[in-house]
Amino acid sequence: MPGISADLICHKLAIHKEAKPVAQRKRKVGDERREAIVAETQKLLNADFIREVRYTTWLANVVLVKKNSGKWCMCVDYTDLNKACPKDSYPLPSIDRLRLMDKVFHQQIGRNMEIYVDDMVVKTTSAVDHATDLAEVFAQVRKHNMLLNPEKCVFGVQGGKFLGFIITSRGIEANPEKCKAIIQMQSPQTVKEVQRLAGRLVSLEIHQGICGMHSSARSMAARVLRAGYYWPTLKSDCQSHLQKCKECQQFGNKHQQPPENLHHMMSAWPFSQWGMDILGPFPPAKGQLKFLLVAIDYFTKWIEVCPLAKITTENVRKFTWKNIICRFGIPHALVTDNGQQFIAQEFEEFLNELGVKHLSTSVEHPQTNGQAEAANKVILRELKKRLGNAKGQWPEELPSILWAYHCTPQSTTQETPYRLTYGTNAMIPIEFGQISHRRQTFNGEQNAQELAADLDLVDELREEAQIHEEAYKLRASRRYNTQVKPRAFRAGDLVWRLLGEARKDTSDGKLAPTWGGPFRVTEDLKNGAYRLEELNGKPIPRTWNATHLKLYFS
């Protein structure tokens, strides 16, 4: 490999023994960034700095960051790799450059030069000494086959920009480019402009001053009036000021009203679409069973479950194959949340091989997989009522709970899941204790004829159930939509994202902010789902629902 000798520095990656390889899902990029990635990759290939590999044990996405010069800097997202490595005094991704610079210039750092990652400044008190120090630096650069970027090199100056600051003999000064807006701000020239400035200062002091309070716009306007100030647009200005206050936005309340109309999901035929979810943890049962894998068919409402000790991708794959595909055929679609077991590459490849469309819900929005959540409620409610103090017996109660559920007419279809699946009603225990009419008048020949007729009419039965379900969901949609307060976003909008408990800083406790951000909307996926990215252009994985977003005002 050309460049710096491996004898001087060679990166050796130490990984925890228990760490599992992580292959990140490929992220989509725009045309401009894709062209930059291709060009930079080809450049590295031509220079023999990288080579193509055939194995995909570890995969990390590249992240493009725009330089001040307008060019793209190609970085790599080593988040997952960092987690698998023992802590080092030099952090990734600059670990090699830091060690290299320390080794090459260890006799000069602090004496006549300073270094930050791969940026360096040579400092001298006289021109003669400066030339000598530069010669010393150049000698080290040549010795170790290092290259300098001519566009970033400046020689023989008394001051200059370094890491965004101006470095001179006087010390560190502010960058004039970043102070330009303040310096060029004009002072008020007319009475109107003076009044406008006074109004802003009054609003700022009353809302955020030492005796201020982040109250509502109405309260803020009342306090301004009590202080003896008034202008015609007082109320609207207070509302605008409150809307743009960063603290009020970040610590504001959650939205209670839904932002989108209710979009219900329907299945075209039995067992064509399943919803899957994980329920637990439960009290440990025999075999250390603590979790329950639940799947429900969107058409018949038939439920399949499997108690497990550990929820792994392999267990989810086996359950899908054994309980769904081998019993009811290959489905058209499978709806899951964003659990690691469901979005793992191994499970995605398994579904792709079978032609199953995998639909993932938005983050922290279980309503998208509402059918599975409803199944969870049924199972959990019945377990609580049946177990009493014997909490560890929950796996033994599952078969009887599912049988009772499958033989109970559902409010949406007006039919039992058992009949929609098999075309006839199941025999239940009560018919043995108190002999039912069909057992009392049973005739083998007539029963065979009736059973054949039921099977012939099963399509009509399912069609009628589908009509009942559609009507039920339309009524529910009409009720739900009366509460909707529309809240939509477009690509390029800046938004706040609701902070879930997992994303809050635990050290903040009760003082943690409600919203985090801002983030930029990159794509509207319709039905209230959006893709986001950070302000530096780094994409945020998975989709986010409008329920957890609100506009950012600045």
TrEMBL record:
Question: Which biological process terms from the Gene Ontology are attached to this UniProt entry?
Answer: DNA integration
Instruction: Give this protein's Gene Ontology molecular function annotations.
Output: nucleic acid binding
Q: Name one Pfam family in it.
A: Integrase_H2C2
Q: Where is the Integrase catalytic domain?
A: 266-425
Entry-linked SUPFAM superfamilies: DNA/RNA polymerases, Ribonuclease H-like
What is the name listed in the Swiss-Prot or TrEMBL entry for this protein?
Transposon Ty3-I Gag-Pol polyprotein
